[in-house]
Design a protein that fits this description.
Layout (H helix, E strand, L loop, with lengths): L1 E6 L4 E8 L3 E9 L1 H4 L7 H23 L8 E7 L3 H18 L2 E6 H7 L12 E6 L4 E6 L5 E6 L5 H11 L6 H9 L24 H17 L5 H27 L3 E5 L6 H13 L3 E3 L3 H4 L4 H18 L13
Parallel strand pairs: 1-4, 4-5, 6-9, 9-10
Antiparallel strand pairs: 1-2, 2-3, 6-7, 7-8
Helix pairs in contact: 2-3, 4-11, 5-6, 5-7, 6-8, 8-9
Bound molecules: 5'-O-[(R)-(carboxyoxy)(hydroxy)phosphoryl]adenosine (KG4).
The site of 5'-O-[(R)-(carboxyoxy)(hydroxy)phosphoryl]adenosine has 21 residues, from helix 5 and helix 6.
């Protein structure tokens, strides 16, 4: 079965073709970083317009790379949420229209569930159940994943998401957008112990996250240096800030794994591309007898291969559940 996946939930326009026996045949993604850079963050209206311009060339590119024709697609999967509503509508409407025109099935996919399943695009996959730490521009969340369609939220962000706080701190330091990659680069030159920054634990048993206090602490440092007319030690601030975020993320997911006695942990979302987070989680996990699974960086950030995979699995599961009474026919699914 060939699935076309489409992702337009935020600021990446992406399409992928996957096959149930050969895996990812091709995936193409176009970032809108240059569009949003002058504003220091994503402008929703500009994001939707850029998706409209980029989507058809991206679709053409993915079919050409996979050397497939439109007629060979069996299923279309598109992100249905969460995300920017205007951006979501572009990909979702296109995907439904494609399925309608070709008389094939369509399935809507939850973006965060797809991040939690992105590890299945890799050769080494975790056993169910596992815990997924999903950290991106809009989310910091811990899920318990029981199978391909059952995901339970154990904790989430109460204010800024992990990626969002990287982006906001980068703006405070005048480092441009997106903040994660540049802060991660600058951190390698800095001293992570230079500044003592808060690590919000919230209550003893909470798996929720809060990063707004950390952002405020960085802004106070910046203000103090500016008031005194001193040069900002940007690399040291980056390293201290990054370490504070990572310590909280790692502490919470390891505690959740211990409390639930689940031994497999999966990392996902754009922030999962962070080298220091990847290595600290792998090391701390191993020290606590937990196996950590890290998707390739290309499948950590927003991509359509994970949408195609999650959509294909959702469809397969629905068919299995409803096969006997034939509730869902091929033509009624998702329409
Ligand atoms: O999942 P994603 O591609 O899409 C959105 O949620 O929009 O994540 C993007 C986020 C941005 O906030 C970006 O700053 C962050 O992921 N990010 C990183 C790194 N690479 C991207 N954060 C920390 N370290 C990185 N290396």
């Amino acid at each position: 079965m060939i699935t076309l996946g489409i992702e337009t939930s935020c600021d990446d326009t992406a399409a992928a073709l996957i096959s149930d026996d050969k895996g990812v045949l091709a995936h193409v993604s176009q970032s809108q970083d240059a569009v949003h850079l002058p504003f220091g963050g994503i402008v929703p209206e500009l994001a939707s317009r850029a998706h409209l311009e980029n989507l058809i060339p991206i679709i053409d590119a993915v079919f050409s790379r996979a050397n497939l024709s439109h007629e060979e697609v069996d299923l279309v999967a598109a992100t249905q949420g969460p995300g920017l509503i205007g951006s979501l509508l572009v990909g979702y409407s296109f995907a439904k229209s494609f399925a309608y025109a070709k008389d094939i099935a369509f399935v809507g996919v939850d973006h965060l569930a797809a991040h939690a399943l992105s590890i299945f695009l890799e050769r080494e996959t975790p056993p169910f159940p596992y815990l997924a730490l999903i950290v991106s521009g809009g989310t910091s969340a811990i899920y318990r994943v029981d199978d391909f369609i059952r995901c339970t939220l154990l904790g989430c962000t109460r204010d800024d998401a992990a990626g969002e706080v990287f982006d906001k701190v980068a703006r405070l330091l005048d480092l441009g957008y997106p903040g994660g990659p540049v802060i991660s680069r600058r951190s390698t030159e800095g001293d992570k112990t230079a500044f003592s920054l808060p690590r919000a634990k919230l209550s003893e048993h909470s798996y929720d996250f809060s990063f707004s206090g950390l952002k405020t602490a960085v802004s106070q440092i910046v203000r103090t240096y500016e008031k005194d007319g001193r040069d900002l030690p940007v690399d040291d601030i980056c390293a201290s800030f990054q370490q504070a975020v990572i310590d909280v993320l790692v502490e919470k997911i390891i505690r959740a794994a211990q409390d639930t006695r689940i031994d497999s942990i999966v990392l996902g979302g754009g922030v999962a591309a962070n080298d220091r987070l990847r290595s600290q989680l792998a090391q701390t996990g191993a020290a606590h007898g937990k196996r950590v699974y890290l998707p390739a960086r290309e499948f950590c950030t927003d991509n359509a291969a994970m949408i195609a995979f999650a959509g294909a699995k959702k469809m397969e599961t629905l068919f299995k559940i409803h096969h006997e009474d034939d509730v869902y026919s091929r033509s009624s699914l998702g329409r």
